[in-house]
Amino acid sequence: MLRSAYLIRASLVLALAGGLAACGDDPLEQGLYGGALGMGTAAILDGNLVAGAAVGAGANLLYCQKNPGRC
């Protein structure tokens, strides 16, 4: 039962994250949006908030640098 609740929360987070991914017009906004999304994901999944924010910010910045047409 606990595992299925975790999977449902993780699925919801990923679905919401897909709509917000790669937002931001400049690197500062991209980092802030990615960090906020990473922190929110970590909070929902009971993870480390600082690590979640760092990973989210870095991932969004990297994505936007590799795919500038999608940001």
UniProtKB/TrEMBL annotation:
User: What is the protein's name according to its record?
Assistant: Lipoprotein
Taxonomy-wise, where does this protein's organism fall, top ranks first?
Bacteria, Pseudomonadati, Pseudomonadota, Alphaproteobacteria, Rhodobacterales
What UniProt keywords apply to this chain's record, in alphabetical order? Membrane, Signal, Transmembrane, Transmembrane helix
User: Which spans are transmembrane here?
Assistant: 37-63
Position of the signal peptide: 1-22
Organism source for this protein? Seohaeicola zhoushanensis
